[in-house]
Amino acid sequence: MKKIKKRGAIYGVIALLLCVAVYLNWSYVDAPEELLAAEQAGLESTGTGAAAEGESEDYFASSRLTREQARDEAVSTLKELSESETADQTAKDEAAAQISALAEDSVAEASIESLIRAKGYEDAVVMIGENSVNVVVAAPDGGLQATDVTVIKDIVVAEAGVTAGQIKIVEAE
Questions:
Q1: Long-range contacts: 126-131, Cβ < 8 Å, 24+?
Q2: What CA–CA distance (Å, rounded) separates 67 from 61?
Q3: Is residue 157 a contact partner of residue 163, using CB atoms and an 8 Å limit?
Q4: 59 touches 173 (CB < 8 A)
Q5: Using one digit for the tens of pLDDT, what is the confidence trace for 116-127?
């Protein structure tokens, strides 16, 4: 009976940690839209190209920092679980698998961002969620065209292994 209660408690902790990880992921995925709105408000108030360019760079740097902080918190929590002496092997294996998945997502995000910049776009930030990929791209002169969206989606599909319907592309101004 104690073993069943212990196992139930461990599964409860895993569920709680998973909820925390999902919340953190949700928080950082929503952050770019908030940051985009703040950036647009800042662009309207500056009116100068140099200031706008600096704010755009700040947006991308800030988005990457927010993404990494959220991921670091999730990894830290999962690492504590995987190293816990009270957790059973199943919980430890699940935590290790989630850490591995987060690391793979991080590598894929960096790769996608690099490939987007290699295609001639000024900057991009990519956030891979559980069932979606959000891409924020610096707006080229004339805005994003259908061909731009196709190029970016092709990169994301190839690198992240998702379908085109799971990709959301947002143009940062």
A1: 126/156, 127/28, 127/29, 127/32, 127/63, 127/67, 128/160, 129/25, 129/26, 129/29, 130/22, 130/25, 131/166
A2: 10
A3: yes
A4: no
A5: 999 999 999 999
